[in-house]
């Protein structure tokens, strides 16, 4: 089964959809707990995180360096942390 076969595309698409759905649920849970800004769009944030990881992995495979992957993830995490409030998340929070 090649990477461009209809079956491979279907499986890959479904796995990415499931992954994004889990991330979306995680963002919503963090919003409900006050760990991230309630104004964040959970779907866009989940999509951005998937794209950041996938793009970073492609570059890492091509270059042997994880710098791009780390930078992309750091930026998405920074986005999650923005606007939580002046005091930030609770001291015992893991974000």
Can you describe what's shown?
The protein has 95 residues and is mostly helical. Helices cover 67% and strands 0% of the residues. It is flat.
Radius of gyration: 16 Å
Low-confidence stretches: none
Topology, number of strands: 0
Overall, the morphology is: flat
Query: What is the CA-CA span between the terminal residues?
Result: 38 Å
What is the helix/strand order?
A: HHH
Strand content: under 5%
Largest sheet: none
Instruction: Report the total helices.
Output: 3
Quote the average pLDDT: 87
Structural class label: mainly alpha
Helix content: 55-70%
Quick overview of this protein structure:
By secondary structure, the chain is mainly alpha-helical. It has helices at residues 6-32, 42-63, 67-81.
Provide keyphrases for this structure:
mainly alpha; 67% helix
């Amino acid at each position: 089964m090649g990477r461009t076969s209809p079956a491979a595309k279907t499986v890959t698409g479904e796995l990415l959809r499931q992954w994004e759905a889990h991330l979306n649920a995680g963002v919503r849970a963090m919003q409900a707990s006050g760990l991230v800004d309630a104004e964040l769009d959970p779907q866009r944030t989940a999509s951005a995180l998937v794209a950041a990881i996938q793009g970073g992995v492609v570059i890492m495979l091509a270059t042997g360096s994880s710098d791009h992957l780390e930078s992309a993830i750091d930026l998405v995490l920074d986005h999650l942390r923005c606007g939580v409030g002046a005091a930030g998340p609770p001291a015992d929070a893991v974000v």
